[in-house]
Amino acid sequence: MRYGALLAGVILVWSGRAAAADIPADPSDYKAKVGTLTPGDTLVLAPGRYRTLTLSGLNGSDAKPIVIAGPSSGAPAVFVADPGPCCNTVEIKDSSYVVLRNVTIDGNHVDGAFGVSAKSGVVHHITIEGCNFINHDGSQQHDGISTKVATWGWVIRRNRISGVGTGLYLGNSNGAAPFIGGLIEGNLILDSIGYGMQIKYQKPRASVPGMPTAPSTTIIRDNVFIKTDRPSPDGDRPNLLVGGFPDSGPGSQDLYEIYGNFFFHNPNESLFQGSGRVSLHDNVFVDVKGTAIRLQNHDLPLKLAHVYNNTIYAAGTGIGFGSKASEGDLVTGNLIFATTAISGNVTNQSDNLTDTVANAPSYVASPSLALGAMDFFPLAGKCEGSPLALASVSSETDYDRDFNGASKGGFTFRGAYAGSGTNPGWQLAGGFKDDATGPGTGGSAGSGGASAGSGGASAGSGGASAGSGGASAGSGGA
Predict the structure, then answer these.
(1) Closest CA to 175 of 278, 247, 115
(2) Is-contact 113 89, C-beta < 8 A?
(3) What is the pLDDT of residue 20?
(4) Rounded to two decimals, what is the model's pTM?
(5) Residue 92: C-alpha distances to residues 52, 171, 179, 390, 456 (Å)
(6) Distance, CA of 196 to CA of 86 (rounded, Å)
(7) Which residue(s) pair with 164 in the sheet?
(8) Residue 279: how many other CB atoms lie within 10 Å
(9) Of 208, 236, 310, 320, which has the most beta carbons under 10 Å away?
(10) Are 287 and 314 in contact (CB under 8 A)?
(11) Residue 4's CB: how many other CB atoms inside 10 A?
């Protein structure tokens, strides 16, 4: 996966931190030891069942994050939600440069007990990686990961989040808690009642010491978003929703870069919905009755929309613009098998390849709705054309890389794959998208033990926020 190089670099850095203290802990003494951690320390958790965890006033540094880590294999360290609930299971307050790695967080079906929550103080540069979130399905508002304060520099990497009300709820429903400069990559988000993930819209930002003010980017890449037919009693939700940025001042030129993701199945809503400033490229969208990609004014207006080199299969509408993007749009190089390919107010639309679902076998290897069997890699000579005009997006991250992370070469392919014949990359399935090659090698749906990144790694820098059609802030971390 794209973050493999980052992982290799982090391993080198990590091996150079031999002087840092490794502090063993178990369910009997971990709470007393958490408060003693200093920059560079690692709290090494033994297997077992733990109660809640509060991280308050823990501040590492970019070079020396504070790490709290469970076993990388074997029996896990499991934090279990309080049945009260007294609180969220992992609460983060006034902390920075902290890594939470390789733990299981069991919501115990207790509505209001969020898995990881940041809801008070100044919280930035938090890394959550290789964790397993289960049983956060007490209601549609029961969140796996929730932020309710201004946050920046978060890395959320290769976590498994399954059986959840809302997988990730980043920002607050009133627009006053911006999620800025995030890197959300390689996660597996399964079986959510509502959103797999949403980032809330942002009102003009209050001044917070240290918070970025320059234009910044939130990157969402290489994730797998799969919904089931669970009913959504509080209203149907997309697999992923991102919302608008402030109209002026810091954050107004922030950008979402969303690429290399797999979106599968939504019986009643879109696979993706966005407003604000969005770049959406080299993703695969499969199985939606309505609109696969919906771009429109929501809590805040749609301003910028770049939609290129996506593959869409089995949709009512492939790409739908409910509003005009006031700062411009680009819809090019997409491969769309849908009843209606593109609809709405699009100014710059060119070089898309569209056809019916029934005709998809004439273009791609194995069009299907079956995970593990579907393969949308192009047949020889079927998905190429004149070079795409992508100069205007050349500043966007990995604009020249396809779904597999391979070079797009001369930019002649339509859809998410730049190649033809046999797919050399991950087979679309119900597991992690990883960096293994070849069909059937694309990671398991296991509990997420792989790690990467130090606590200080942040993504680009940028803002995110989204008003999703009506989801509330939930109870435990509102």
Answers:
(1) 247
(2) yes
(3) 72
(4) 0.89
(5) 11, 14, 15, 41, 16
(6) 25
(7) 136, 192
(8) 23
(9) 310
(10) yes
(11) 13
Q: What is the pLDDT of residue 436?
A: 56
Cβ atoms of 312 and 318 within 8 Å: the answer is yes
Bridge partners of residue 166, in order along the sequence? 143
Closest residue by Cα to residue 70 from 104, 29, 114: 104
- Please, are residues 436 and 426 in contact by the beta-carbon 8 Å criterion? yes
Residue 328, phi-psi category: left (phi > 0), alpha (psi -120 to 50), beta (remainder)? left
What single letter denotes the amino acid at residue 440?
G
**Using an 8 Å Cβ cutoff, are 272 and 263 in contact?**
yes
Beta bridge partners of 45: 25
> Contact, 419 vs 412, CB < 8 A?
no
- Greatest mean pLDDT among 3-7, 78-82, 448-452 lies in 78-82
- Angstrom distance (rounded) from CA 346 to CA 5: 37
Residue 427's Cβ-side half-sphere holds a number of Cα atoms within 13 Å equal to 18
Burial of 73 (0-12, 13-18, 19+ CB in 10 A): exposed
The answer to whether the CB of 446 falls within 8 A of the CB of 67 is no
pLDDT, residue 2, reads 62
Tokens 């966005």 -> residue:
274
Q: How far apart are CA 127 and CA 130, in angstroms?
A: 10
Token output for 448: 């997420």
d(CA 38, CA 421): 53
Instruction: Give the residue among 90, 101, 177, 95 at the shortest CA–CA distance from 136.
Output: 90
Rounded CA gap, 107 and 134, in Å? 6
Beta bridge partner(s), residue 278: 256, 305
Count the Cβ atoms, other than its own, within 10 Å of residue 175.
Answer: 21
Per-residue confidence (pLDDT) for residue 456, from 0 to 100: 33
Residue 296, both tokens: 């429109």
Peptide bond between residue 85 and the one before it cis (omega within 30 degrees of 0): yes
Q: What angle do CA 122, 123, 126 make, to 5 degrees?
A: 165
CA distance 151 to 91: 14
